[in-house]
Specification:
Blueprint lengths: L2 E5 L2 E4 H4 L3 E5 L6 H14 L4 E5 L14 E4 L6 E2 L5 H11 L3 E4 L5 H22 L3 E5 L13 H12 L5 E7 L7 H5 L3 E4 L5 H10 L4 H9 L5 E6 L2 E6 L27 H17 L2 H33 L25 H14 L4 H12 L5 E2 H8 L3 H6 L3 H6 L2 E6 L2 E6 L1 H8 L4 H21 L13
Parallel strand pairs: 3-9, 3-10, 4-7, 4-8, 5-6, 5-7, 8-9
Antiparallel strand pairs: 1-2, 10-11, 11-12, 13-15, 14-15
Length: about 475
């Protein structure tokens, strides 16, 4: 049976680490990255397939002794990859047992998150079918599984860490800020390497993980030297020293002494050729419709960021503006009298009431939008113009668009050169939603119905003055 030789007094059976969630915690310079590197070295020596999410581009040194494929966007990658190719490389790694380092050091935060999400999602779904032993290392994991925040990537990583064992998946999570890591994941880790910490909040986390009094936890942890840690697994708890890495550590602290990068092992040509072929096929397989959808998604994300910038700039201007002696009281919303029913049939009026009942459940800013646009049909307005009238941030309209109003057909949405615009289309809505009544109503009755509906919609903006749901 293969053992993981982690230090002079710590040798673990490989089976004991397989499928485990392993947590390595400690401040920068305490030796946590060395501990992670040693674990990865031992796994590679045992030909145990793995992937490492490398946020700082420091694990390429494993190639000094082991054949590891480095992909992503960084100085030391074998192949530069974008988000589209991530699932394919994940499948190659899991099916063929190819060790992979995801170097995301040169990616922006959102690109990095999407890249890792696509990769790990494919690993998770495929592992359910293949059920092969496989380990996933995540450096600076507090960036991906932060405490108190929900993201799609966090959900996938937590799923792998907490429930991956049944699919053969294990995880090694590394962080210098234990207090920022999702508690549910830390407390369920089956194997812990606790290096030195100094922050009180991190010490409190250690106190929750270790079965000692708080005073003893602080005494033991603060006495740890570089490379030393408290090892906790099951009933075993002891102080250990982890051996130095055998391979080059790309995360060394810069100094005036020259550091020479060693000669690194090259990945087999057939692996690189398979990935190049996959990239070409993936690029060629994208249809015009898929490209258009991707363009629209990126444009929407850009519009959302621009709106948030404008909103922050507006808030900054308001704070920098000198205070007025007697600030004017906000103008009350205009009163809208109940419109005449024009002798419309009772069945039509009941249908209008059912529609209004549905609309009253919408957020206040959406009710204000439909009232504003109904009163000004057929003019169209950009999200920036609508946000000013509805007294909400433009980012709110972009992040939470009035989808239900558009699906009902009360509003139409267009993407124009001046931005995303909305306008009311009450006549088209009446022609479709009340089509069964139109023969009886006739042209004049249809005109009256549109007018009556417009008047009732205008009343929606004055129903309540609760601004709590407006960002």
């Amino acid at each position: 049976m293969h053992h993981l030789n982690l230090g002079p007094d710590l040798s673990l059976p490989l089976a004991e680490a397989s499928g485990q969630c392993v947590a390595i915690l400690g401040i920068r310079g305490s030796g946590k990255s060395n501990t992670a590197g040693v674990i990865f070295e031992e796994l590679l020596a045992a030909r145990y397939p793995l992937s490492i999410v490398d946020i700082d581009g420091e694990y390429f040194g494993l190639k000094e002794k082991y054949e590891v494929l480095v992909v992503g966007a960084g100085e030391n990658v074998d192949i530069e990859l974008d988000v589209d190719a991530a699932p394919g490389v994940a499948e190659l790694s899991l099916r063929e047992g190819v060790p992979v380092i995801l170097d995301v050091s040169d990616m922006l935060a959102e690109e990095r998150e999407l890249f890792v999400l696509e990769y790990l999602t494919r690993i998770w779904s495929l592992a359910g079918k293949l059920r092969k032993p496989y380990m996933i290392g995540i450096e600076e994991c507090h960036e991906f599984i932060p405490q108190g925040m929900r993201t799609d990537l966090k959900e996938v990583i937590a799923r792998i860490a907490l429930r991956g064992r049944k699919r053969g998946l294990g995880a090694v999570i590394i962080s210098q800020r234990s207090a920022k890591v999702e508690k549910d994941v830390l407390t369920q880790a089956g194997m812990l390497f606790l290096h030195r910490v100094v922050h009180e909040v991190d010490m409190r986390v250690y106190s929750e993980l270790l079965p000692w009094p708080k005073a003893e936890v602080k005494e033991q942890v603060t006495s740890l030297g570089v490379g030393e840690c408290i090892y906790l697994s099951g009933q075993s708890i002891r102080k250990v020293k982890i051996r130095p890495r055998h391979t080059f550590h790309g995360g060394f602290t810069p100094s005036f002494k020259p550091v020479e990068t060693p000669k690194l092992r090259q990945v087999r040509g057939e692996i690189l050729a398979a990935i190049h072929k996959f990239k070409e096929e993936k690029g060629a397989s994208l249809s015009e419709e898929e490209l258009q959808q991707r363009l629209e998604k990126l444009e929407a994300e850009l519009a959302l960021k621009q709106a948030r910038i404008r909103e922050l700039e507006r808030r900054l201007r308001e704070r920098q503006a000198p205070p007025t002696a007697n600030p004017a009281a906000p103008e009350p919303p205009p009163e809208h009298p109940v419109p005449p029913t024009f002798d419309l049939p009772p069945e039509v009026l009941r249908k209008v009431e059912r529609l209004l009942k549905r609309l009253r459940r919408l957020p206040i800013h959406e009710r204000r939008l439909v009232a504003f646009l109904a009163a000004r049909e057929p003019r169209s307005y950009t999200t920036a113009e609508l946000a000013a009238w509805a007294d909400c941030a433009e980012a709110t309209l972009l992040a939470e668009p009035p989808t239900e109003l558009v699906e009902l057909g009360l509003l139409s949405c267009e993407r124009l050169a001046r931005g995303i615009t909305y306008r009311a289309q009450l006549k088209a809505f009446v022609n479709r939603a009340f089509s069964g009544f139109l023969p009886e109503l006739g042209p004049q009755g249809c005109h009256h119905l549109v007018g009556y509906l417009r008047g009732r919609l205008c009343q929606l903006s004055a129903l309540e003055h609760d601004f709590s749901r407006i960002a």
